[in-house]
Structures are given as C-alpha cells and as structure tokens.
C-alpha cells in the first residue's frame, strides 16, 4: 500500500527537519568560510602592498645613495685627474730641467770678446766629414759626431736641389785657431784679423758645431760666398737642419760672415727663422731652454742618416 506524500512528510518530519538543518548549517559554514578567505586575502594583499611600498622606498633610497656615491666618485676622479695632470706637468718640467742639466751648456753659449771657450775645451766626440763635401779633399775635417747626421742631410738636400755646397772649415782646436789667427794677421794685418777671426768666431769652431761653407767654384775664395746661389739656398733651408747664420748682415755684434753656420738644434733654428731673429740678439737664459731639445731629431723625424 502506498503512502501519500503528505503521509511521507509527516512521517519523516523530524528527519526532514534534521536534513534541512544540516543543509542550512553547511551553507552557513561555506559562506563563513568564503567570507573568512576573502578577508584573509584582503589582509594578504594589504601586507603585500605595504611590503611593495617599503621595497619601492628602499629602492628609491638606494638610487639616491647610488647617485650620491657616483657623484662623490666623480668628484674624486676629477680631483685625481687634475692631480695626475699637475704631476705629469711637474714630471715634464723636471725632465726638461734634467735634459738641460745633462746637455753641455757651451753648445748654446753666446761668445764675445770677453766670454769665450776655455782653451782646453774639446767636443765630447768628433766625426770625420765625408771628403766628397770638402773644398780641400786631402785635408780631413771633423765635426761633433751628433751633429754630423744633421749636416749630412743638409748637404745631401742641397745636392739634390743641384746646389752643391762644400765645407772649407769645421772643428778647430784652440791651437789650430791660434795658428790660423796668426796667418790671418800676417795676411790682413792685426786690425782686420781681430775683426773676422777673433775670439767670437773661434769659440764656435772649437765647439765642433760650426762650419764654414764654400762652393766647388769658389773653393778657398769663400769671401764671395754671399753672392752664391748656395748662400741663398742656405738662408732658406739651413734652419730645417738646425743651422743658423751666427753673424748675419748688419748685425750689431760682429762682422758679417755669410759662410759661417752654427748648429743650434732644430727647435731654436726654426724659432729664429720664423721670428726673423738673430741668435746673438736673444737673452742667454732664453737660449738655454733649447738645450733640452738640442739633439732632438737625430733618431726620428725627417732626419736621414748615412
Ligand atoms: Zn767660421
């Protein structure tokens, strides 16, 4: 026999109630759980946000610190660079002074009737000049060995320009000079001899840095050298090889000697040429600075060697 639905409900009322209660309870629990989870999630999000803010702040602080450090480092580097630069400049100056001190000061000395070389002075080393450049080939001539490469280049360059140059005199010892002076005196008389072969000129020859030029045509008649093509060529080109005319025309201190050329180094010769100045017009202290670069150019640059 079948029970009606009403009867079933009535019969199972208690069970239904319990069942409904259980369903409700589980719903409430589920809802609570969800709310709790939501709340906890929000809390976590908030904590994370706070942590993120903190990290961002720390990062910003770090960036500021880094910039400060970099700026400080930069300052230190700038200071270091300027100290290094100053130090380098000082080292440079010391080197210049050392080179000046190590170079024979006589090489750039101005000579006069009251200041001349000691009779015992001799160049540190001498080289025999290639005889093909001599006026008198059987009378060997010598020159300061470190100046020979400069002179050789000058002679070769003149030759290439078809301006043949010859040398009539170079290094002269004190004794040789004395003999020569006596000869001049005998030939020209004491007054004239003192003028063109006296104390100034002899010192430059005794240094081993000075030569008297002539040409194959003029030979020993070098007193006419001023009119030669070779002289014009020297006026335009000798300075590039470090040679200058010690006693130019109309100079205030000595007779004109167009044949007499002294080596003063590439730097000073160029300076004198560019500024149209005479060696003997310069102050001795200003000249001495060039001792630092006196022999420069012998091993590098345009200088050729034999
Ligand atoms: Zn001379």
TrEMBL record:
Swiss-Prot/TrEMBL GO biological process terms: proteolysis
MF terms (GO), sorted A to Z: peptidase activity
Top-rank lineage group of the source organism: Bacteria
Keyword match Coiled coil: yes
Membrane-traversing stretches: none
Coiled-coil regions, chain positions: 38-72
Alphabetical keyword list: Coiled coil
Domain D-alanyl-D-alanine carboxypeptidase-like core as annotated: residue spans: 144-265
Protein name per the record: D-alanyl-D-alanine carboxypeptidase-like core domain-containing protein
Species: Candidatus Vogelbacteria bacterium CG22_combo_CG10-13_8_21_14_all_37_9
């Amino acid at each position: 026999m079948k029970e009606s639905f009403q009867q079933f409900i009535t019969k199972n009322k208690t069970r239904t109630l319990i069942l409904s209660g259980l369903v409700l309870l589980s719903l409430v629990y589920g809802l609570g759980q969800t709310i709790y989870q939501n709340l906890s999630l929000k809390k976590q999000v908030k904590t994370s946000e706070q942590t993120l803010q903190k990290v961002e702040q720390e990062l910003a602080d770090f960036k500021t610190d880094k910039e400060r450090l970099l700026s400080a480092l930069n300052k230190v580097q700038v200071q270091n660079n300027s100290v290094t630069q100053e130090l380098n400049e000082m080292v440079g100056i010391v080197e210049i002074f050392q080179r000046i001190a190590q170079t024979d000061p006589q090489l750039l000395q101005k000579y006069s009737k009251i200041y001349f070389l000691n009779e015992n002075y001799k160049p540190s080393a001498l080289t025999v000049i290639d005889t093909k450049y001599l006026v008198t080939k059987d009378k060997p001539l010598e020159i300061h060995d470190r100046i020979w490469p400069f002179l050789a280049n000058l002679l070769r360059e003149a030759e290439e320009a078809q301006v043949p140059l010859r040398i009539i005199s170079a290094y002269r010892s004190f004794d040789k000079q004395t003999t020569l002076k006596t000869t001049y005196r005998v030939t020209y008389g004491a007054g004239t001899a003192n003028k063109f072969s006296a104390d100034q000129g002899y010192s430059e020859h005794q240094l081993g840095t000075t030569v008297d030029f002539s040409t194959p045509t003029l030979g020993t008649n070098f007193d006419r050298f001023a009119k030669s093509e070779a002289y014009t060529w020297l006026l335009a080109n000798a300075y590039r090889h470090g040679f200058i005319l010690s006693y130019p025309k109309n100079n205030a201190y000595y007779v004109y000697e167009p044949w007499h050329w002294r080596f003063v180094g590439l730097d000073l010769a160029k300076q004198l040429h560019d500024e149209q100045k005479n060696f003997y017009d310069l102050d001795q202290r200003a000249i001495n600075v060039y001792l630092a670069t006196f022999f420069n150019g012998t091993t590098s640059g345009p200088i050729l060697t034999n």
